[in-house]
Amino acid sequence: MTEVIDSRRRKLLVGGAASVVAVAGAAAISPRALAAGEKKSFPSYVAWKEQDSLILHSAQTLETKREAIGASVITPTDRLFVRNNLPAPDESILADRDAWQVTIQGTKQSRTLSLAELKTLGVETVATVLQCSGNGRAFFDHKASGTPWQVGAAGCVLWTGVPVRKVVEALGGVEKGAKFMTSTGGEVLPQGLDPKSLVVERSVPLAAMENALLAWEMNGEPLPLAHGGPLRLIVPGYYGVNNIKYVKQVAFTERETDAKIQTSGYRMRPVGEKGAPDQLSMWEMNVKSWVTSPVTSAAAGRVQIQGVAFGGAHAVKSVEVSIDGGRSWRKARFVGPDLGQFAWRPFVLEAELKPGTYTIASRATNTKGSTQPEEFPENERGYGHNGWRRHAVEVTVA
Amino acid sequence: MTEVIDSRRRKLLVGGAASVVAVAGAAAISPRALAAGEKKSFPSYVAWKEQDSLILHSAQTLETKREAIGASVITPTDRLFVRNNLPAPDESILADRDAWQVTIQGTKQSRTLSLAELKTLGVETVATVLQCSGNGRAFFDHKASGTPWQVGAAGCVLWTGVPVRKVVEALGGVEKGAKFMTSTGGEVLPQGLDPKSLVVERSVPLAAMENALLAWEMNGEPLPLAHGGPLRLIVPGYYGVNNIKYVKQVAFTERETDAKIQTSGYRMRPVGEKGAPDQLSMWEMNVKSWVTSPVTSAAAGRVQIQGVAFGGAHAVKSVEVSIDGGRSWRKARFVGPDLGQFAWRPFVLEAELKPGTYTIASRATNTKGSTQPEEFPENERGYGHNGWRRHAVEVTVA
After folding, report:
1. What's the pLDDT tens digit per position in A206-229?
2. Looking at chain B from residue 270 to 289, which residues have their Cβ under 8 Å from any Cβ of chain A?
3. Mind telling me how many Å the CA of A213 is from chain B's nearest CA?
4. In Å, how far are B28, B81, B187, B188, B261 from B24, measured between CA atoms?
5. What is the tens place of the pLDDT at every residue in A370-396?
């Protein structure tokens, strides 16, 4: 694996993930290297990431360390988690960003628009929590398959792009009968396999269009390849998988796509059951929070207990913190500017802690009145965990 | 000059600016190299910067290109301007950030606190416009000495740290009679010269303490050396020079410091006059805005005219855009979340432009009712320019 070394971020990265991982799902990191605790090299498409802040689970899955999340209003791009369902396309798709094309279908006029054309139609910036459906998978008791994410398959990001509704307006509106927005990623599919079993194509309810963005920037810079550049669909309040990278088509459809990732993938189901279209799809996120500092130890005296909280599809309203494993709770204070309905809010609770061991938990409530439960039901794929007990940390104060 | 090449940002930078520039004010870049248009290497302490987005004026002055400012709510750290009055200290001061010490004086108790102790006293995040007093110097007619900044000696940054008032509270409050907050930077002063002529020590009115922060993070990451890490004083609404880097002392004083940078430096004065303490000090910023896109050319048709606007010491209230050199104005729309009183707000005006040449200007108004003037008075050092006419851009639409 060639790691390109350069001081300028996201520049001069040659080749793409395709040259690193030839087949979807193959592990670029040998289990032996992991077991030996060797220093792992990051694949070239994420070589610019802040290595000390991330856990490299595989070539396509990087998790932000809990203590590296800090109490920031936004997650710096170089600390943000990465999760690709397929290897990223070749870096060459970023050579001429404005030339990237996306086809819009299911509108009065169907059209293929370049990114340069999209930029003339409008501009908006929205902060959203980007979170993998499986964030918190490690906290389930059964051994769910997939990356054992703890809390770091999530971040809060500023996206800049054109609102999808502005594009739709320019094309005469959505055709009658459409119930879903169905979008397709531009990943290169391996030959010889059924495309429907691999393509990253997701349908979300049409209503999600209202807040959706076709984004070309994140945190004020052009979208890097690892995060879907040159163009990504952002569906605020929805789980990560619905935020299609390298988006090449957005269609307004009567039915959900028959791609496997939609029909049986990303479905909430009892342990042991197969995925099916009648199960809950991983669309809107639920309310959630976790402590980011302290995580393991602290000096006795005044301690600033910090974390992040978000409301899912609705704004977060409040968050409580417990230092006694949930027996008593105190209301925490939000820190920093409010970036809007779909952003997370850092929080802090100041506490005087004597030497001892503390189980520190947090519990958020959103504006719809939903509060994090103590436990979350086991489910086959380990999705959607927002139970506060398993998200708690054990902190030694000395 | 050794440029350390590494894919991990802000890591493994060896040496410091001191090894690049031995004496304050010395130019590390030869005029010959500049004249020849050669590719300039960035000094090691800023080698991690996004080189294509910045203009390297000297080893201690980097400006963000106008078109790289974009319409972002915050300025990515790797695109933010740099202006150091003295060479940055050695990178080794970041080896143990929590051990950094700052002395607080002029409070009931005087104390030296470590960064680790500061972190126990409170935490807040504030977005501020960081702007050099000389931003816009290039737009004055007389040849003011100093870096010929255009618009890019400014950015909007999220700072995280402890409010100064929380520190002061913990030390029993400010002593009677104090009228200023006087803070000192930790730069290493060259031997054999009068320290008062070089030290970066600035006094601001005591009232500025209310919003001030001792910050250890910017944009969610530990403060880099180039921007004052491990600890920087942030004075929201005040010009950059008051935001002391490597801050090692904060004193509450009856009088302004007698350091040269305060007594005669950073004073607003008529052309040809020497600096003196009775002239206006570069404290609170004024209301300002500029267009960031398009800057030189655009395709005919619908165009999203974008820029940034801020109110200075007061929040920005509105911004107007003119496409005819100021003969007529239309109200622009703010884009993205409002990060608070001291942040800038990106704006957009959608216009249908036929082929031709347009002089595009913007004019902001703050909540105190101040509006950008058409012209700004010439002054000796070229400070504080917020005249809208000179900030306009000439755009060819074809």
Report:
1. 999 999 999 999 999 999 999 999
2. none
3. 12
4. 11, 19, 10, 10, 14
5. 999 999 999 999 999 999 999 999 999
